[in-house]
Amino acid sequence: MTDTSEFTVRVARKTPEAIDICTFELVRTDGQGLPAFSAGSHIDVHLPSGLTRQYSLCNDATENHRYLIGVLRDPASRGGSRAMHDEIEEGMTLRISAPKNHFPIASDASHSLLLAGGIGVTPILCMAERMAAIGHPFEMHYCTRSPERTAFRQRIADAAFAPQVTLHFDDGAAEQKLAIEPILRAMPDQTHLYVCGPKGFMDWVLASARAAGWPETRLHFEFFGASIAPLATDGAFDVQIASSGRVIHIPADRTVVQALGDAGVEVQVSCEQGVCGTCLTRVLQGEPDHKDLYLTPEEQAANDQFTPCCSRARSTLLVLDL
Q1: Smallest Cα–Cα separation from 308: which of 262, 259, 252?
Q2: Domain range spanning residue 281?
Q3: Which of its termini does the chain have fewer beta carbons within 10 Å around, N or C?
Q4: Whether residue 249 is found in the same domain as residue 165
Q5: Of the candidates 67, 97, 127, which is a domain's last residue?
Q6: What are phi and psi of 293, to 5 degrees?
């Protein structure tokens, strides 16, 4: 069961880690310990403006006195990263959720390949440190635009597992850039792949792995954000609430969450981009038009759940378990 607890934390330290990247060390204001977490976990951070954003935890998973998150100032920000960089300072308080993990380390993996792009290093680094601590064999590749934009360079260099990590820079020589196909071919049988970073980077990695025959069961990923652009083919449809039988019309220019909210039916949301899974809702009848980056292709194909914050319908009616 997901822990729905929330906590008030103080920003104990705000540290520039690289160009446009800061880490925030969060501690409870009441001095108590924070809930345990596992590598790959994230927390919801409730900003003073009312926005809620998800950030991966990137400190040692055995610590319970603090959480550490890394935040990129994103020029395409919808307000969250700008607020974290420009408005949140040391000493301020924030409300956060208990950790959630939609990106866990597979317990049955014999070897792991960790691939990070930019700020996607936050969960990947936590995984690398955990794998090193338990003696699990892995190889890590970390791609950034330049050395100056590479967060945690010293932390990685100082780690005992540093020889297992290769850095790749967009502005560096061609021979040091990430060549994914030979790396995929060189991995031992039953290797599990973990990737996090910008959508283009992740799409490239996952498409390369699928083309090389890697099964979905060995591909693990977490998207930080998505651009859900309306399409000309997006049409209107109806949603029926299973518990009451009520039918609500969803116009072409409104999301399911928005239209349900207008009708007084509240669905809990967080990212509103189809990446966090907070609003995941069971579909009892009808065919969703999946636009999320949370469900796997197999889960989408089952058509028994969808993310109403961004996904729509291919059928004229969806019956939802609400």
Answers
A1: 259
A2: 237-320
A3: N
A4: no
A5: 97
A6: -120, 20
Element containing residue 142 per DSSP (H, E): strand 138-144
Instruction: Note the pLDDT tens digit of each residue in 229-250.
Output: 566 678 899 999 999 999 999 9
Question: Is the model's pLDDT at 2 over the cut of 60?
Answer: no
The whole-angstrom separation of Cα 242 and Cα 285 is 10
Please classify residue 234 by burial: count the beta carbons closer than 10 Å to its beta carbon, then call 0-12 exposed, 13-18 middle and 19+ buried: middle
Q: Which residues pair with 9 in a beta bridge?
A: 28, 94
pLDDT tens for 29-78 read 999 999 999 999 999 899 988 888 889 999 999 999 999 999 999 876 66
Q: If we measure between CA atoms, which residue out of 122, 155, 126, 150 comes closest to residue 138?
A: 126
Sheet with 6-18, side-by-side order of all strands: 52-56, 42-46, 93-97, 6-18, 21-28, 67-72
- For residue 130, give the nearest of 112, 118, 148, 144 by alpha carbon: 112
Q: For all residues of the chain together, what is the average pLDDT?
A: 91
Question: Considering the domain boundaries, does residue 137 fall inside one?
Answer: yes
93 vs 311: CA distance, rounded Å: 34
